Amino acid sequence: MRNLLSMEHLSNEEVMQIIERAAQFEDGEMTRLEKSYNVANLFFEPSTRTKTSFEMAERKVGCTVIPFDADFSSALKGETMYDTVKTLEMIGMDAVVIRAKEDEYYNELLEGINVAVINAGDGAGQHPSQSLLDLYTIHKEFSSFEGLKVTIVGDISHSRVAKSNATALKRLGVNVRFLCPPEWAGDFEAYHSWDGLIEDSDVIMLLRIQHERHVINKSFSKESYHEQYGLTFELEAKMKKNAIIMHPAPVNRDVEIVSELVECERSRIFDQVRNGVFVRMAILETLLEGRSI
Ligand code: CP
Known about the structure:
293 residues, 2 domains, four-stranded parallel β-sheet, 8 strands, binds phosphoric acid mono(formamide)ester
């Protein structure tokens, strides 16, 4: 693996290798990296957990984190993504972690760039490190994927998490169902009511409503969304005994989920954040070690 761009590019074997390595990191194993690689995090869209989690993972595996502030970079003077990354390569970077608002921004980096590129989210495209930490969280809970039922709920068409997870989970043998308002289904066949979905789901995966990617819709009401698609106490009470609740976060409390359920017993929302550090350590080690051979 030379870059991490999309879950479409990862085999089940590569996914399982990352999961197994992340579990070793969680158990306290140290990294195998022999040198201190230089890594920069280029976030052209806001982030709390992905950016901080990558920085924590980079430090834990012994990388040197080179500060990059997108808001004060020459991208604001019109420099292209290619020229930005090539410049960082010439300065001595070994890897760059990038979040950008353009879908598939990474296509312009496939030729001529020799550093590892890790996609930390491209527009409404893919979010592979989030997907891998979601898969790690599910595997930690159920020890396998085959035959699980996962219901992904919410803003499907604007969600890079939904797309990355749908690709990976289906390939791993999971029965993936989608629940959303008709206008947010995109290319997916979706249900528009919870009927029959809550009782047999092993995982309810809620998604954030991505207002920043919507054309202004004056008829949208948080209250009516919550009433039809939000996870309420009543729905939670119908979940299977061992079923879990996930959400990539940030959460719109009392919209996607009742605020009090965010940290309920079956919620793994903050565990996902913790798991993300181990998974990103595994991603960094796999990419940097793979390139150094
Ligand atoms: N889940 C996720 O990508 O969160 P951030 O936008 O805070 O990084």
